[in-house]
Structures are given as structure tokens and as C-alpha cells.
């Protein structure tokens, strides 16, 4: 095993015009009968940007709204309000009702379940060929064949597997095919929703390494949605934490997980099993964190807008030094004494 | 020293599995799901069985409980519990053995509660059926049991759907220890739960184990979780145990390449970000030999030329480990 330390994003990552930018995205789902006015707030005013060649992880527990965000960005769900900018163009305005082919050729998805996302009746070749054909990337027969083999090589599969059926492949191999299918379109952004959670543990790292390689070699930006903090730290340059439909904290992955500022992030970090810090479980501290996160009286982020801990929306506080990209939104956040001068408060990051 | 003598504490082992072989017998061919597996669990010991789907770990749990159904057949070996031969038990003996001696919590146990009965009815049922207590006494004990796992006894009147997933899982664990079994088998007890709830459940199990002193057979694919909880553990691959040692030893110095791959599959939350390598797709180990003692209490199945002496690295060629570097 090499002892090289994995670097952060490419030098240009996060600067210039972002590849994907989400502004004030909200989504409410109606509940109850036809005439009911009730609704549940799945996403509330989410702002998130994804630089060119940057990998951003979106973490949170089930029910936090991360999959709703993915479905909105994938245009499988219509957001209630907000903007999704791809290359500076608001795609919700451009293609009002459904994603256009142009959108799909810029943004591709990799889903959680590689067993369900490949039609069992077709050979692997079919999926890739179809991707090329639909998006007009197919050339002469010989060129297409070369491209297919190249795609297989890129994702680490043998070219002779093109003739296999999905059931002949392992879960990890299928997920590689799903990634190759996304790559065939030559997208700028890949949206990966829990791409490893259904795979056997020993092949998960291989998929994460492949995603990193694609970013490094082809400059593809990725939004990596996961509940696994350790893998977010391993793969992503930046990590955003979602809780009850809102982003509560965001920062460079290493910094965020080393110095979590929001009680919810602290709770998540403390819950990850890690033998290296065995015995770290402190039930008293846990109870405090839980209380801070869950009790309606103390936090606005419990999903109950009726009883927030303050009438005002919490603002973003910068965590650490001013050039840090780490921020938190929480009324309870108190900057450390030394950095108090840097704790600049922004009303809203535009 | 043989493998079955290595156990936590000086007590006689509670459970002793020796050369267990389980086959799934088909019309034309049969598959060996568990192949000559031996291990033992001491009194009050938490023993972990790690491995991926299909490695045979759940089949072992089901063999111990005698829950195997056709086409699975125990083809050889023995399972002894407190000196009794589990494989030779008759129906009546088996009925007492299950739940009173050994209890099991299944992977989706929280969904195994009966949706049309209250939690209280289901718990009191254990006491009236298995222990012969009166209804009133059973109810009192049921309330005690819920308090043990930090659930408010008013929840006795709740139906399962009124409890959260974590609460239901805790209720199921409480029910498993209701009759004070000497061995608790946990088959992926937290896989379906969020990480925060998972840690609370694990802390709960640790606390119960400390209080009631039972032994635990803990089955999971999550190495980090297992190393945190277990005293001793074994790693399974393709129906064979490839490595067994104290959990701390496996964490600090895994020797078999498969164990290393499993450990490497869980990136750490602290320290620098270094490249990890999982097991490459399609890498398979075949004809895994019997375990050999690599160091006191640390048994590893020999795996080729560079074997144990070389520190266990390099048995897989660098070329097969795709994505090792950036």
C-alpha cells in the first residue's frame, strides 16, 4: 500500500463558475387527502455549489432530504421553488417540465442499486451502445467498438465482459457498468446516490477509487450522496451536512469532520464506529447532543418550524480562519475565543 | 494450543463448534456453505464472526439454533453447548434450548414483531409460555424488561408501528434476553438502522452484556463495529475461517489478504487521507487450508509464497489491486 497522502481537489476546483449550482431549492410534499392543506417540508432553501472537477459529499441520515435533493437535481422530482444552474444556465426555466436530452448529456446519474438499474434481458454491450446512440456519440462501427472497449477499460473491466449478461457479474462489476454507461455520454457532472451501499464491503473502496480517478483524469464534477461519513471524508473535497431538509454545515471534508460545529454533525461524527478511537462513546455527552438536536425548544432544525429555538432563521457563521470555507448555521454556535474576530456573520451566502 | 482452547477468560467454553460443515444439497449438485469451521465462545465473551454476504456466517448462526431448512444439511462436525450435543437434541429439548439457553436477534428483527399485538402482549407471552408466570407477574417483568433497555414502560400498550425503528430493535433485544439466556446470537443487528441509532443499540448491548453476563456471537460485515465490540473474532470467506484472533490484534495487524481488504474497506475518520485498496473485483481465494498459529492466539490460513512470515503483505499481486494509487 502506498503511503501517499491523497490530495484535495484539482487546483481549479471550486473557483470560477461552478459546474452545478443549486440556489434556494425547496420542495414540499402535500400530505393528507385532496383537500388537505397540510404539507411536509422535504427541502428548505438549499444552496449548494459544485466546482469544476470537485467532489462534494452530501451526508445525512435517512429522512434528512438528501435523496429528495438528488431526485430534484436529476429532474425526477419537480422542486417547489429554487434554481438549478448547470454551467450558469437555469435548467428549471430552460426545460420547464422535464429534463432535456441536453441536460442529460451534461449530468448523469449512478444509482444505489446496480441490480435494479441494468435490464437483465440485455448484454452489457447494449447499455453502453444505447447510451452512445441516444446522445449522438456513436460513430462508425469500428469507432463505436473502440469506444466501448475504452469505456470498459476506464472503469476497470475486461472488454470481453461486453458480451456478458448482468446476472453473470458481481455487484461491484455491475456498478462499474453503471458508471461506464454514465461516462459514455461524456457528462460534466455525475450524481451518485449511495453508489456503494448495496455492494459487498470489500469492493466498495474500489468504486470510490474509480470515482476519484475519473475526477482526476477527466475533470468530472461529482455530487456524492451518502450516509457514510468515513467514505465522504475519504472521497470528497468538501462535505455538506443535511438535516431536516436544510444544509446545516459545510466545509472541507477533513476540516469539517475534525472540527464539527453543529450539534447534529457532532452527533453523526461521534456515532461512527472507529476502532482507532475506541471507548469514545460517552452516554452523557451523547444525551446532551441529542437534546440539542432533537428537542423542539432548543433547535430550529428539528423539522418543526412551529417551535424553533429562535424566531429568526439562523445565519451562517464562518468556522475557523477567514479563508476557511467551513460554515455552520446554528443559533448555538459560539466561535472559539481566539478566532472570535474572524467569526464573520453573513446574512445569506449569495 | 488448539483453536478451541483459545477463549476469553479461564472458564469452560459455553459454545463449542467443531469442524462444522453445512451443505446445500441440490438435485444435480450441492454447495458447501460452511466448510470445517471450528470456534468456541467462553463465558461472558463477545465473539465476532465477520464476512460478506454468502460467506456462510448466517448459516452458522442458523445451525447453532437448529433452524436450517431444506435443502441445507449439516454434513459433518459437532456443536456443543454447555456440554450438551445440540445436533442430537430432540424436539422438546430443542424447545427449551431455544430462547432459554440461546436467543437470537435477526437482521430485520424490528420488523418481526407482530403488528396486531401490543408490545406488552408480545413480551408477556414469553413469560407465560416459556416461564409459566401468571399474567400479572409477566406484566410486571415485561415493564422491568423495557426499563432495562431504556424504553418507558407506558410503551407496553403501544403497537409496533407506533415505535421508531431503533425502539423496536431495542424491544426485540430486550425480548431476546428476557429468559436470561447464556448465549445471545446477533445477526447483523443494526444493519437497517441509521448510524446514530446503531451506536446506541451497540452501547445498549454492551451494557446488558455487562449486567447479565451472557456470551455473544456477533455477526456483521462492518469490521469497525466488530472490532469495537468484540473480544475475539473470526473472519470468514467462502465458508472457511481465514483468520481468528483477539479483535485488537486483527485491527492492528491483520494478516490474511482478505482480512486486510475488509479492514481497508472502512476508511478512518481521523489521520491523513491515504489511499486504500479493497479487494479487486473477481479476486478469489480457493482451497483455503486449515488455520495455522501465526503468533500466540492468532490463527491464519496460510495463503501462498509470501505468507505470514513476510508480515502478510504482497500475497496479492499489485496488478490485481486496481486503483491503488491516484
Automatic annotation (TrEMBL), chain A:
SMART domains (alphabetical): AAA (SM00382)
GO molecular-function terms, A-Z: ATP binding; ATP hydrolysis activity
Keywords noted in UniProt: ATP-binding, Nucleotide-binding, Transport
SUPFAM superfamilies attached to this UniProt entry: P-loop containing nucleoside triphosphate hydrolases
Gene Ontology terms: biological process: peptide transport; transmembrane transport
Gene3D superfamilies, alphabetized: P-loop containing nucleotide triphosphate hydrolases
UniProt-listed InterPro entries: AAA+_ATPase (IPR003593), ABC_transp_ATP-bind (IPR050319), ABC_transporter-like_ATP-bd (IPR003439), ABC_transporter-like_CS (IPR017871), Oligopep_ABC_C (IPR013563), P-loop_NTPase (IPR027417)
Protein name: Peptide/nickel transport system ATP-binding protein
Organism name: Arthrobacter cupressi
Automatic annotation (TrEMBL), chain B:
GO biological process: peptide transport
InterPro entries linked: AAA+_ATPase, ABC_Ni/Peptide_Import, ABC_transporter-like_ATP-bd, ABC_transporter-like_CS, Oligopep_ABC_C, P-loop_NTPase
CDD domains (UniProt xref): ABC_NikE_OppD_transporters (cd03257)
Subcellular location: Cell membrane
Gene3D superfamilies in the record: P-loop containing nucleotide triphosphate hydrolases
Principal subcellular localization: membrane
Pfam families: ABC_tran, oligo_HPY
SUPFAM superfamilies from the UniProt entry: P-loop containing nucleoside triphosphate hydrolases
Domain of life according to the entry: Bacteria
Gene Ontology CC: plasma membrane
Keyword set, alphabetical order: ATP-binding, Cell membrane, Membrane, Nucleotide-binding, Transport
Bilayer topology annotation: Peripheral membrane protein
One example GO MF annotation: ATP binding
Entries under PANTHER family matching the protein: DIPEPTIDE TRANSPORT ATP-BINDING PROTEIN DPPD, OLIGOPEPTIDE TRANSPORT ATP-BINDING PROTEIN APPD
Family: Belongs to the ABC transporter superfamily.
Protein name: Peptide/nickel transport system ATP-binding protein
Protein's organism: Arthrobacter cupressi
Amino acid at each position: 500500500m502506498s503511503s501517499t497522502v491523497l490530495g484535495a481537489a484539482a487546483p481549479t476546483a471550486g473557483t470560477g463558475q461552478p459546474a452545478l449550482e443549486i440556489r434556494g431549492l425547496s420542495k414540499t410534499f402535500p400530505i393528507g387527502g385532496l383537500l388537505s392543506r397540510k404539507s411536509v417540508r422535504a427541502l428548505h432553501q438549499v444552496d449548494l455549489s459544485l466546482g469544476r472537477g470537485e467532489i462534494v459529499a452530501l451526508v445525512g441520515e435517512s429522512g434528512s432530504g438528501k435523496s429528495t435533493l438528488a431526485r430534484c437535481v436529476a429532474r425526477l422530482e419537480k422542486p417547489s421553488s429554487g434554481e438549478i444552474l448547470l454551467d450558469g444556465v437555469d435548467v428549471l426555466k430552460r426545460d420547464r417540465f422535464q429534463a432535456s436530452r441536453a441536460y442529460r448529456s451534461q449530468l448523469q446519474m449512478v444509482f444505489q442499486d446496480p441490480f435494479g438499474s441494468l435490464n437483465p434481458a440485455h448484454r452489457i454491450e447494449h447499455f453502453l451502445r444505447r447510451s452512445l446512440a441516444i446522445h449522438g456519440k456513436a460513430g462508425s462501427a469500428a469507432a463505436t467498438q473502440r469506444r466501448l472497449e475504452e469505456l470498459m477499460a476506464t472503469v476497470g473491466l475486461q472488454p470481453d465482459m461486453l458480451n456478458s449478461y448482468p446476472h453473470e457479474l458481481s455487484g461491484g462489476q455491475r456498478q462499474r457498468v453503471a458508471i461506464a454507461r454514465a461516462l459514455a455520454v461524456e457528462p460534466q457532472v455525475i450524481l451518485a446516490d449511495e453508489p456503494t451501499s448495496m455492494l459487498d464491503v470489500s469492493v466498495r473502496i474500489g468504486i470510490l477509487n474509480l470515482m476519484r480517478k475519473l475526477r482526476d483524469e477527466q475533470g468530472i464534477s461529482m455530487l456524492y450522496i451518502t450516509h457514510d461519513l468515513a467514505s465522504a471524508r475519504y472521497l470528497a473535497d468538501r462535505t455538506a451536512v443535511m438535516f431536516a431538509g436544510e444544509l446545516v454545515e459545510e466545509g472541507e471534508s477533513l476540516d469539517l469532520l475534525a472540527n464539527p460545529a453543529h450539534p447534529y454533525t457532532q452527533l453523526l461524527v461521534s456515532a461512527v464506529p472507529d476502532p482507532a478511537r475506541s471507548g469514545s462513546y460517552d452516554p452523557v455527552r451523547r444525551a446532551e447532543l441529542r437534546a440539542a438536536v432533537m428537542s423542539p425548544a432548543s433547535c430550529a432544525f428539528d423539522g418543526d418550524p412551529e417551535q424553533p429555538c429562535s424566531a429568526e432563521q439562523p445565519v451562517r457563521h464562518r468556522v475557523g480562519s477567514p479563508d476557511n470555507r467551513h460554515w455552520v448555521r446554528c443559533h448555538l454556535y459560539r466561535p472559539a475565543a481566539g478566532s472570535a474576530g474572524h467569526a464573520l456573520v453573513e446574512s445569506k451566502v449569495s | 494450543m488448539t483453536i478451541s482452547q483459545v477463549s476469553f477468560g479461564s472458564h469452560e467454553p459455553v459454545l463449542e463448534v467443531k469442524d462444522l460443515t453445512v451443505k446445500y444439497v441440490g438435485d444435480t449438485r450441492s454447495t458447501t456453505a460452511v466448510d470445517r469451521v471450528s470456534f468456541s465462545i467462553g463465558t461472558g465473551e463477545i465473539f465476532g464472526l465477520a464476512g460478506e454476504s454468502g460467506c456462510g456466517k448466517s448459516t452458522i448462526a442458523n445451525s447453532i439454533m437448529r433452524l436450517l431448512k431444506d435443502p441445507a444439511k449439516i454434513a459433518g462436525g459437532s456443536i456443543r453447548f454447555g456440554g450438551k450435543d445440540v445436533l442430537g437434541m430432540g424436539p422438546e429439548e430443542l424447545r427449551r434450548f431455544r430462547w432459554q439457553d440461546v436467543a437470537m436477534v435477526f437482521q430485520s428483527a424490528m420488523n418481526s414483531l407482530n403488528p396486531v399485538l401490543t408490545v406488552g402482549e408480545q413480551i408477556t407471552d414469553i413469560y407465560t409460555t416459556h416461564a409459566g408466570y401468571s399474567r400479572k407477574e409477566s406484566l410486571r417483568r415485561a415493564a422491568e424488561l423495557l426499563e432495562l433497555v431504556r424504553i418507558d414502560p407506558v410503551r407496553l400498550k403501544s403497537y409496533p408501528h407506533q415505535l421508531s425503528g431503533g425502539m423496536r430493535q431495542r424491544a426485540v433485544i430486550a425480548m431476546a434476553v428476557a429468559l436470561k439466556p447464556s448465549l445471545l446470537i446477533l445477526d447483523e443487528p443494526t444493519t437497517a438502522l441509521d448510524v446514530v441509532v446503531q451506536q446506541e443499540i451497540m452501547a445498549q448491548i454492551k451494557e446488558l452484556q455487562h449486567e447479565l453476563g451472557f456470551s455473544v456471537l456477533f455477526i456483521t460485515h462492518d469490521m469497525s463495529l466488530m472490532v469495537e465490540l468484540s473480544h475475539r473474532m473470526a473472519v470468514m470467506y467462502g465458508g472457511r475461517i481465514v483468520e481468528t484472533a483477539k479483535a485488537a490484534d486483527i485491527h492492528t495487524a491483520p494478516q490474511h489478504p482478505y482480512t486486510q481488504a475488509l479492514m481497508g474497506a472502512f476508511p478512518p475518520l481521523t489521520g491523513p487521507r491515504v489511499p486504500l485498496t479493497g479487494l479487486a473485483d473477481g479476486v478469489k481465494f480457493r482451497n483455503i487450508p486449515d488455520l495455522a498459529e501465526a503468533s500466540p492466539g492468532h490463527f491464519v490460513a496460510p495463503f501462498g509464497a509470501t505468507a505470514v512470515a513476510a508480515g502478510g503483505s504482497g500475497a496479492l499481486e499489485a496488478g490485481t489491486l486496481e486503483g491503488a494509487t491516484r
